[in-house]
Amino acid sequence: MKQITKKVIKNSLKRIFLYRACLVKLKLMGVEKVFSYTLANETGVTSDQVRKDFSEFNIKGNKRGGYDINVLLEKMEKIFHRSKDNNIVLIGMGNMGLALSKYSKFAQRNMNIVATFDIDPFKQKLRSGIPVYSMSRLKEIIDRFGVKVAILAVPEISAQEVADELIRYGIMGIVNFAPVLLKVSPDVIINNVNLCDELESVIYYVHKLMKVDGLKNLELLYRDMKY
Amino acid sequence: MKQITKKVIKNSLKRIFLYRACLVKLKLMGVEKVFSYTLANETGVTSDQVRKDFSEFNIKGNKRGGYDINVLLEKMEKIFHRSKDNNIVLIGMGNMGLALSKYSKFAQRNMNIVATFDIDPFKQKLRSGIPVYSMSRLKEIIDRFGVKVAILAVPEISAQEVADELIRYGIMGIVNFAPVLLKVSPDVIINNVNLCDELESVIYYVHKLMKVDGLKNLELLYRDMKY
DNA sequence: CTTTTTTTGTGATTTGTTTCACATCAATTC
DNA sequence: GAATTGATGTGAAACAAATCACAAAAAAAG
Ligand SMILES: NC(=O)c1ccc[n+]([C@@H]2O[C@H](COP(=O)([O-])OP(=O)(O)OC[C@H]3O[C@@H](n4cnc5c(N)ncnc54)[C@H](O)[C@@H]3O)[C@@H](O)[C@H]2O)c1
Ligand SMILES: NC(=O)c1ccc[n+]([C@@H]2O[C@H](COP(=O)([O-])OP(=O)(O)OC[C@H]3O[C@@H](n4cnc5c(N)ncnc54)[C@H](O)[C@@H]3O)[C@@H](O)[C@H]2O)c1
What we know:
The structure is a homodimer. Chain A folds into 3 domains: about 10-80, Orthogonal Bundle (Arc Repressor Mutant, subunit A); about 85-195, Rossmann fold; about 195-225, no CATH class. The first copy, chain A, is globular, with a radius of gyration of 21 Å. By secondary structure, the first copy, chain A, is of the alpha/beta class. Chain A has helices at about 10-30, 35-45, 45-55, 70-80, 95-100, 105-110, 140-145, 155-170, 195-210; strands spanning about 35, 65-70, 85-90, 110-115, 130-135, 150, 175, 190. In chain A, helix 1 crosses helix 3, helix 1 (about 10-30) packs across helix 4 and helix 2 packs across helix 3 (about 45-55). In chain A, strand 6, helix 8 (about 155-170) and strand 7 form a beta-alpha-beta unit. Chain A has a 6-stranded parallel beta sheet with strand order 5-4-3-6-7-8. Chain A has a two-stranded antiparallel ribbon with strand order 1-2. Chains A and B meet through helix 1, helix 2, helix 3, helix 5 and strand 7 of A and helix 1, helix 2, helix 3, helix 5 and strand 7 of B. The complex binds nicotinamide-adenine-dinucleotide (2 copies). The first copy, chain A, binds a DNA duplex through helix 3.
């Protein structure tokens, strides 16, 4: 049987996120220059891997001189398309939606939630500085702000229907917090964030860890479950 | 250079989560029996992969008869250690912590947030049905409920310090919402949930998608960025 | 200015994962 | 009840990712 959809979020891209987190931290500490092994030590990947990843994204350093932290961060900004602003809409202003709408890091990274939407008239008022609209204004706002990416924080039961609507109006990528597998055409990017699964996988590994009594089986140990 | 920490959350385990999500949905629709290709169609992986994954976790079906959905779900419960209850603590009752504390799915899956904690006396009162304690009672509660897993939703600046405290009191696994790389001993499981990164990776792929004009380069297309 | 040291960048090699291919089994058909 | 059909389960083959190993470059030392 042939596979129709495929996993294409590359491990190397995930590690680029990791390197950046690390670089941000180092920069705050006043560091200006890093070597592949600096990043390696901090992140737990090998220095070879760091360089291989950089080479994949065409990031070049200086032979013997390592990498300038600012240049590196700048190149990463480019990779993540953060030179320009990205307008986002958020659907569902319940518990999760409200928390997300108040999260300042998104805006700090040029990802602006320009509007939020909810079906419940009770929630359609200004909270957290971002307007809450009724669903009837969705198309208008998406068009006006040229929005391409949405955050979906509605109950499971409504997730598919709202996703369909978003896609009809031109949304091309969705971060979906509802624990359902959305059925969409393959030219739409869906990123499912399933917090139950995240918690469960920690439990899974903790149980596993407890079974290898005396920590004899070091093969099974690890620090971070993702890159 | 040798790698000290390694990625061990296996793709196969991630896909088991995916299969389960799918099975839950099918069960609700009244389906009782599935074949490897049923799951394959629903999830976008190949039927071979489904069977290989099952074989890794020692899940057996019936030749020609496929798999009984209930048996399958039961075996997965076992894999995720959900026969017994898992007690969880949640640290940081700000925006994110509050939303999480109100999320009923955790309890539905036997993951009980038995207590929440905050440094701010103002937040130390009952909200959302779960008590909010001062940090001074952390050890007591962890001991009393035999808690092994924590959710960390405090500001970045405090994340490391609180993580250290948790680990000192016996916590073995942490779901960390703060966008910082925690430094911990390798026998502690850290699962970083970085929502900025999740959003950014969608933006990354949407931009990529827009560049392959006319959708000619189908190689680049995909439905779900993770398994 | 030559040698040594240090670090990058990348083919070659190894290791890991997915797909293929088919033997095996059990239900169904004839 | 023999033959056919339609599934599983799993080694073998193909593919992908990570590690190794070393040439190339540049800085530092002599
Ligand atoms: N709260 C959490 O911590 C949490 C954690 C993980 C996942 N989730 C998931 O996120 C989603 C939202 O969770 P929540 O806790 O915020 O739920 P919630 O019930 O508090 O909020 C849902 C919001 O969506 C709105 N809504 C419902 N149908 C809608 C529609 N068709 N169009 C627009 N808006 C609609 C509701 O009015 C409500 O305000 C759920 O799918 C949930 O499973 C929540
Ligand atoms: N709000 C979101 O949507 C969101 C999204 C992604 C990530 N995060 C991350 O989650 C964390 C919390 O975010 P938030 O928006 O809820 O922030 P917040 O400021 O609303 O809440 C933080 C809470 O932690 C408490 N706290 C601070 N120091 C503490 C300590 N040492 N011990 C115990 N409690 C302490 C504070 O009193 C506050 O109640 C942050 O690291 C943030 O980056 C938040």
